[in-house]
Amino acid sequence: MTNPFDDPDALYRVLRNAEGRYSLWPSFADLPPGWDLVLADRPRQECVDFVEEHWTDLRPAGPVASGRPNHGTGG
């Protein structure tokens, strides 16, 4: 069975959380709590391209807003 997160023929959504992190999500699955829909029902590669274009700073929003570097220590 194919992993629904890796199926190149499926439709996906792009989600974003409060920290500004993005995720690809299969269109058939309910949105997980804490995530908002940004782009709906598109081919996987289109969603990947969207994320690569819009998620240019991989740090969570908290350290970015505070000006603190994030060294993987929780803030």
Characterise this structure.
There is one protein chain. The chain has a three-stranded antiparallel β-sheet with strand order 2-1-3, with helices on one face. 23% of the residues lie in helices and 28% in strands. It has one domain: Alpha-Beta Complex (Rubredoxin-like). The N and C termini lie far apart (38 Å). The protein has 75 residues and is of the alpha+beta class. The protein contains two helices and three strands. The protein has helices at 44-54, 61-66; strands at 11-17, 22-26, 35-43.
Task: Give me the secondary-structure topology.
Elements: E1 11-17, E2 22-26, E3 35-43, H1 44-54, H2 61-66
Antiparallel strand pairs: 1-2, 1-3
> What's the mean pLDDT score?
85
What is the chains' assembly state? single chain
Major beta sheet summary: 3 strands, antiparallel
- Based on the coordinates given, report the CATH architecture: Alpha-Beta Complex
| Residue runs with pLDDT of under 50 for 5 or more positions | none
Query: Number of DSSP strands?
Result: 3
Count of separate DSSP helical elements = 2
Structural class: alpha+beta
Backbone shape: globular
* The number of domains: 1
Distance between the termini: 38 Å
Widest sheet, order of strands: 2-1-3
**For this structure, what is the CATH class?**
Alpha Beta
- Content of β-strand: 25-35%
**Share of helix among residues?**
10-25%
The CATH superfamily turns out to be Structural Genomics, Unknown Function 30-nov-00 1gh9 Mol_id
Q: Briefly note the CATH topology name.
A: Rubredoxin-like
The Rg value, from CA coordinates, equals: 14 Å
* String of helices and strands: EEEHH
